[in-house]
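Hi C.,

You asked whether I'd gotten around to modeling the 209-residue construct. I have! Everything is below, sequence then structure, no commentary in between.
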Amino acid sequence: MKNTSSKITKNKTSVLELINQNNSLIFMVFCLILGFLAGVLIFKTKSIAEGYYSKEFINLYNELNSGFVLAILNSFLEQLPFVAAIFLSGTCMVGTVLVPSALVVRGAVYGMIFAYAYFTYGLMGIVFSLLILIPSAVISSIGFILSSREAVGFSLSLARLAFPETKKPHIEQDFKLYCMRQLFVMIFFVTSAFVQGLMSVSFISFFKF
């Protein structure tokens, strides 16, 4: 019994340590999910003209139906404003507020797209999302979460400069490291665009919207 209780205690401790070590990552996941739920609620309240959703969804469908190369390019360009917003937000002291906000907005965009597909096209919209939208969105979301964590971390380093009593970070070295890590995260966005192009060219012919 003692061995069992000690093992349970150790497991609980390891879980708490894991959460403590990755609290910023967990917070980013929470922001993305919060944004997604907000996007679904915004769509359901019809607070924006219904024609707006229809137009945007048809534009998305046409972009995905434009061929393999153009589908990849359009997917990457669609992500680029959020990538730039998160990166630039990380280079200022208020990035700890701006970065989560950008992540919430990104999640809201996902939420509105998936909500429109489901509530407008039913089962066909669900299948369309599962085959073409979600695989790319999952990869892209991982990239946004990792990018946001790095951006908030560097923003906090900049914020420490405002407090004379704290130990000054090596900003030049930290910025180089920040850029290298953000460059690495770009692999997720490129992969996401490639996957969406591949899934589009494979399955888009089954859907007529």
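If it helps when you're writing up: Residues 140 and 189 are 5 Å apart (CA to CA).

Thanks,
B.
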